[in-house]
Amino acid sequence: MNIAACDLLGLPRQQLKGQALSNFITAEFTRQPKSVGFPSGKSLMGELLVVSAAQTPREMEYTLTPNVLPHCHLLLLRDISQRRESMQAELRQQQQRVELFSEVTLKIRQSLQLKEILHTTVTEVQRILQADRVLIYHVLPDGTGKTISESVLPDYPTLMDLEFPQEVFPQEYQQLYAQGRVRAIADVHDPTAGLAECLVEFVDQFHIKAKLIVPIVQNLNANSQNQLWGLLIAHQCDSVRQWVDFELELMQQLADQISIALSQAQLLGRLEEVVAARTAELQEEINVRMQAEAALRQSEEQLRLITNALPVLIAYVDEQQQYRFNNQAYQDWLGQSPQKIYGSHLRQVWGEDCYQRMEVYVKTALSGQAVNYENDIVLRDGSWRAVDVTYIPHLDDENMVKGFFALSSDISDRKAIERMKDEFISIISHELRTPLTSLHSALKILATGRLGTLSTEGQQMLGIADDSTERLVRLVNNVLDLQRIESGKVIMECQACNAANLMIQAAEAMQAMAQQQEVTLVKQPQDISVWADADYILQALTNLLSNAIKFSSPGGTVWLTVEQEKNSSNNPKEVVFRVRDEGQGIPADQLERIFERFQQVDSSDSRKKGGTGLGLTICRKIIEQHNGRIWAESTPGCGSTFAFTLPTLEYANIQ
């Protein structure tokens, strides 16, 4: 044994020599008689429990290679206790975050009592973050402010109802926080923290060593700038503290919820009659949504548990596509013993049909490239299973491929749950559409003045409600469109289309929005024939133009262009549409992620601009069903370009 093994077992080498392995290790092979040998050339792998001389248990991964020397076996152990503990700790942290956020959100939805909401927020944040003090600071109209809700440990003074002088919170600070600035200060005395000297002196009175500050902002109407209402602040008083991303994200989400609560409280007096007529129906929708969220979380948890418990096929295949190692799971899944599979060709083990599906990936792995794909296999009982397969090439010292490692895991349950989730989203979206349509119509009638004239403030609140309803309707429609496309219910009826006509129609549809945003829309059409479904390509173009206009500054320009790619020996002839803007740009690490569901580059800015986070996902699905490609190019601060390809009419006829 090496030094690490001695440390693990808790005894020096002299005392360990001669002791039975079963005194420390719980595993099947330790209970076998000495006379029983292991299969030649085979290694055993798995997990076991090691208990040291001090009775300290540790979870380990092991690899047992028999007969490396005559009558001697090699046992390799790797400690996975810390990894397990880290995973459990992360799961607990995520669970705490979900519980806290759900509880605060539930209180916001069920109650309009602002004081109760704020008290719950500071209490739960202080408990989860283990901070010495958590408070909500309200900015008063005269530039001063005071603490209106607080949770603090008994060892430190309270700041409740204490008014802060304007000197410690000057006007320039307020403007920065109104723009969404977040401060995570690990040490208030650190010169790089940038705190004013008077502010440092002020916080020293209350023994504050570190602080985390998140603004609570309001947007009273669509045409006004964000207004700073207050701050959500966490203090560490006993020592300095490095704040982590989880804590920052949690505080930001709760600040958003507080902003929602403020809007609800302010609207209560002005819209009481309208709210009363809809309260019962909205409460039922909220309950259904909460139950749906709980059911979805439960399904995801079950999926994780099932996946963790599933066996995994592990094998090594040489360059002749013959098995040189496979684990016991092959026996359980296929009914073929490791001894029978050893030396067999892949075609013999999996059959002709399955081998044809995997052959191209096998050749790729033997060329030196790692491969991951999904496949369907038949088990020994005749049932089908969907599996996720990974091939990892094995290279020698001269970088020559000697074979590859094959890992296969069962994903049948995940596939079934994904189908259930899509069906669930479709049902809920359909159920939301009818009441949203009724609510939207009622708001439109109110806006006409047929039911009475509202005050100016009432008209503003009605406009906010109407905008929010339109956004919800767009979200439901986008979810339904995406679900229909992904489920295969949408069939693209492709025909010959003129690219210039498509561009002109899309530009005309978005011209009103461009004028409203004071953005110049420039189109450069060309008479090129493409093979496409005109309606869906128009939807993709208008989605991209809408995004470009929304994220352009007044006076900016958005370009819509098209060009025909030249032929090459490897790529078919394609037409490339491009939408270019002069907006703020997209970071390079987010260019791929923005095409995923509900992904937006800057959530705070996206809330101000509007959007559901599904438009680019729908565009990608539409283009992929046309056998095209879609991508984004951007330089932060210099605008973005979204491009997609469609096959030309000539290439479509060849195919």
Describe, in plain words, how this protein is organized in 3D:
Helix content is 45%, strand content 23%. The protein is of the alpha+beta class and 655 residues long. The protein has four domains: 83 residues, no CATH class; 160 residues, GAF domain (Beta-Lactamase), CATH 3.30.450; 96 residues, PAS domain (Beta-Lactamase, 2-Layer Sandwich); 164 residues, Heat Shock Protein 90 (2-Layer Sandwich). It has a six-stranded antiparallel β-sheet with strand order 7-6-5-10-9-8. Strands 12-11-15-14-13 form a five-stranded antiparallel β-sheet, with helices on both faces. The chain has a five-stranded mixed β-sheet with strand order 17-19-20-22-21. Strand 11 and strand 12 form a beta hairpin. Helix 15 packs parallel to helix 16. The chain is globular. The termini are far apart. About 1% of the residues have low confidence. In the N-terminal section; belongs to the phytochrome family. Its EC number is 2.7.13.3. Pfam families: GAF, HATPase_c, HisKA, PAS_4, PAS_9. Keywords: Coiled coil, Kinase, Membrane, Phosphoprotein, Transferase, Two-component regulatory system. This is histidine kinase.
